[in-house]
Amino acid sequence: MTDYVTIAIPKGRILQDSVALFKKIGIDCEELLSDTRKLVFVNHEQKMRYMIVRATDVPTYVEYGCADLGIVGKDTLMEAEKDLYEPLDLKFGYCRLMVAEPVELSSKDDPAAWNNIRIATKYPNVTEKYFAAKGVQVELIKLYGSIELAPLVGLSERIVDLVSTGETLKQNGLAEIETIAEITCRLIVNRASLKTKHERISKIIEGLEQHI
Questions:
Q1: Where do the ATP phosphoribosyltransferase catalytic domain residues begin and end (predicted)?
Q2: How does pLDDT run across 156-166, given as a tens digit for each residue?
Q3: 100 and 145 part of one domain
């Protein structure tokens, strides 16, 4: 399948938006939305292959060349720090990477006075860099589940997490304090694939660019 183009996409809303976007440039991958446990889909007619992977694994599959292209949130790319080409902001999947803390703490807190703080997050690399640039020492606790739980049970006073509407934070008594980054989904490309399959990949990039 050396002449096929392989795309890695995570499940969920990103997959739905990706399928809709590809349809606009004549790439039919509706099968990816079917109710199946399949992880690899092949369209022999269009010489396309699709891999359904965890969002956090998309950059790894693309960096190592198992996939030529990938679609993933900018937050994942910032955390993974992989050597990839990132040609397009696809403009969907908007959310914010935020610092948050309990409402009762925020009413009297001054972020400018932060010195040595403890933060629970799924994004330790991004968090450490952000606070290092501000000259603030942080003790990082890496979590994989619901980050909002950490302040509720005393694991940490503050968290760094993705926020869409902010409703989950409110329901758990947390307030948004600072925005680290605004996040959207990006198209990423394996650097070697861009050379070996330049014509096909460039055509996909140019097509997508006209519809975003």
A1: 54-209
A2: 999 999 999 99
A3: yes
